[in-house]
Simple sugar transport system permease protein (Rhizobium paknamense), 351 residues
Amino acid sequence: MNNSVTTKGETSQRLSLRFRKDGLLPRILLALALSLAVAALLILLAQKNPLEAFAAMLAGAFGSPHQIGVALNRTSPYLFAGAGLALCFRAGVINMGSDGQIAMGGIGATAIILAWPGTPGAMAAIAALIAAAVTGGLWAGLATAIHLYRRVHEVLATLLLNFVALLLVQLLLSGALGQPGAGFLQSPLMPRSVWLPRLPSFDFHIGIILAVIAAVIVSFLLWKTTFGFAVRVAGRSRPAAAYAGFSIAAITWQLMLGAGAMAGLGGGVEILGLQHRLIEGFSSGFGFKAVTVALLGALEPALTIPAALFVGFLETGALAMQRQIGVPSSLVTVIEAATMLFILAATVRRS
């Protein structure tokens, strides 16, 4: 049983060895250089000045406290969902349903606030975040039940439930949760008393702090608990995990419910911290960004923190470049994808 958890300092030693023995840092620097070269070429093909474009990207991401706050707010849901996915992927459970789980979290949080008697306050906000986590976890649980009891692959079950969740958001905004007379499918604006607190100088809400805490807790679970040991063994060899007495079905349930709760919490934070109302399609694309975060973090929950920050700041800077330089939106998407692809190639785990 002493081998079921890591020894003190093993986590930091493991990461240090990866950087030194695997040559990870030089590969990351090379990946960044290649991504910049490809981005410069694409910008030239669009008949724009690459130097001006890169300057606009940096200014858009780091040019002011407000821009940094925008990037941190964008990072929060990616980190919540990405840390949960890293744990799933570690055990070979391919959860592709974060989009739907985030959307369900938004539904849960919104329903609590709108149904709260009287004027909702801090307790209502806490209850809404709990409801967001529960709703996201239950939605992931539905996919797990379909996978385990009907023998449907988890990739297919979670992907298809994404579309169901997004349609469910539309349905509820057309009825019970919708704002009458609004030109868009959206809920009524939530009162300021339930908005997540913000740091005034940087204008980011506390969601990013909650996300970092959650990622650290997930990392602790992975490396310091018997459950984490079972996850790592299952990821290496499911027959070995079964031989050691671990239930693969139980591990799958725990991972999916936990990852769904994390994603749902990300949806609740997005609603209470940034949107302040449920909006049709608010979570579209978040889940696939979370997959990117999990992979960029090499399936290390602690490393999903810098990975999510990288994705959030890259996206914020790229959008600013589009606005200021006039780079086509499709080119911005290609530049983001190429950068992530090069970094992913440098950090991917090798068996």
